[in-house]
Design brief:
267 residues; Glycerol uptake facilitator protein; 2 domains; globular
Length: 267
């Protein structure tokens, strides 16, 4: 099995590649908690949240299936076909995250709230056009490094999921693929919800903290004494998208007029 640091580094690189692949289409939303937090900040329409979440959970489940079949032979050799949660031949932790035996539910919940709040606080700092924004092409790498750092710092207690889709979908898969109900029944069904509820709370808390202490306090471009509000804080990004949209519409209209002219001329 790979070592912890190698896993967290690979996790960070994987997040970076996912953002590179989907950033231009959806903004790189790979985490339901992030999507909800962005909707709370009015940076993502609430109507898109269910669609994003469905894609995130389905994508995570599919990734679990691919991992299982790619390493099926290795699993068979390791546990002889007897899928176990823990112990010398435990493999459930390859998919979902589980707590140390001495970690209480409330400690785990606090762990998830705190780590995910840091995630969102830092992500918003990276994205904020008024802050020390890195080059657009480096943003995915920066976020991936952030994921690796948080996983290394907070992974010991309970795996540092920070992403409900990254934990729930693989947990469902393991329950269906031979590990039985134990991925959910662990501690009397009083653990699996921690990595769903905690990240959602933490994401919203972290997003609101960034806005309360930093995002709302940038000087207004027209009046340095007036802080920038939520809408103004995102104006450079919104303006860029609006300008691109307007240019696309103008280009489409010009091409349409040219096509009509050619058709009329031909007739």
């Amino acid at each position: 099995m790979s070592s912890g640091p190698a896993v967290t580094l690979t996790w960070g690189v994987g997040v970076s590649m996912g953002i590179y692949a989907s950033g231009g289409v959806s903004g790189g939303h790979l985490n339901p908690a992030v999507s909800v937090a962005m909707a709370v900040l009015r940076r993502l329409p609430w109507t898109k949240v269910p669609v994003y979440m469905a894609a995130q959970y389905i994508g995570s489940f599919w990734a679990s299936c691919v991992t299982y079949f790619l390493y099926y032979d290795a699993l068979e050799k390791f546990d002889g076909g007897d899928r176990q949660m823990f112990g010398d031949h435990g493999t459930a932790g390859i998919w979902a995250t589980y707590p140390q035996s001495y970690i209480s539910v409330w400690t785990g919940l606090g762990d998830q709230i705190f780590s995910t709040s840091l995630l969102l606080l830092c992500v918003l700092a990276i994205m904020d056009p008024h802050n020390m924004t890195p080059h657009k092409g480096l943003m995915p790498i920066t976020v991936g490094m952030l994921i690796t750092a948080l996983a290394l710092a907070f992974g010991y207690n309970c795996g540092c999921a920070m992403n409900p889709a990254r934990d729930l979908s693989p947990r469902i898969f393991t329950a269906l693929a031979g590990w039985g109900l134990e991925p959910f029944s662990l501690r009397g069904y009083n653990w699996f919800w921690v990595n769903i509820v905690g990240p959602h709370i933490g994401a919203v808390v972290g997003a609101l903290m960034y806005q309360a202490f930093i995002g709302f306090h940038w000087p207004h471009p027209d009046s340095p004494d007036v802080p920038v509000g939520l809408d103004e804080a995102m104006e450079p990004l919104v303006g860029e998208v609006t300008e691109q949209t307007e240019n696309s519409h103008e280009e489409f209209e010009k091409k349409s007029e040219l096509l009509i002219h050619r058709v009329v001329t031909t007739v």
